[in-house]
Amino acid sequence: MFGRTNLRLLYYRYKDSSSYSLLIIAFIVSICIILFFQIVLPQLESWFSIHDEVLATRTRIDTINQNINLIKSIDTIFLNNQLDIATSALPSGKDFGPILNAVSDSAVSAGVSLDDYAFQVGDIASISGKVHGTTKDLANVNFTVSVSGSTDGIQNFIKTVGEKLPLSEVTDIEGDTRGTTVTLQFYQKQFPNIVFKDDQPLSPISSKNISLLQQLALWHTNQALNSVSTDSAIPLF
Predict the structure, then answer these.
(1) pTM to 2 decimals?
(2) Residues 110, 157 contacting (CB under 8 angstroms)
(3) What is the CA radius of gyration of the chain?
(4) Burial code of 160-175, b = ≥16 C-beta within 10 A, e = fewer?
(5) What are the C-alpha distances in Å from 113 to residues 25, 150, 175?
(6) Per-residue pLDDT tens for 37-56?
(7) Which domains does the chain have, with CATH numbers?
(8) Which of 108, 106, 222, 228 is nearest to 168 (CA)?
């Protein structure tokens, strides 16, 4: 093993040679490389990580501020009215009262009489919930009713019931000498399970959906007026 004396002899022997200078340079470069990978590089990585976190935090704060401004700009009463209209058009549960009212009001408006009727409650399923070629999580209630009246009256009944709430569509029409049987399909949809995340921007109602709500609001108003005018009428069922 090298002692202190041997190291001193080696130093005096090789201090003026080129090998000594190269050794010192190699030693310094090695120390610098070690310090770079052990200290400088981790600090740089930490700086970039902190910088990314700062940018992400700023983006989240901007999103939260935008959501707050959007919520502040919303008229609560108007929003509740829109929710009531949407819920009356597409109820969250199977409420048979509005269905009977819609069919009864349509019959009065069209000047036809209704005889026997029957409900058939469907299930929520991806297959049975296909509406106009689009899969939706919709429940459906099939309503079959016998209609007596003129051809024009029955056509007006079908048109009028399509402009009533809750939303429905005619799926089958059968006629004979005794009368006409119309099958309607009413739809319901449960409220989705909303998980709010403050880092996701809230979107206002699109112009297309606003136009749809306005149309539904018109149907809702007309239905309310017709219900008031037919309160004293003889029940059709």
Answers:
(1) 0.62
(2) yes
(3) 38
(4) bbebbbbbbeeeeeee
(5) 107, 10, 15
(6) 888 778 878 888 888 888 88
(7) 78-229 (3.30.70.60)
(8) 106
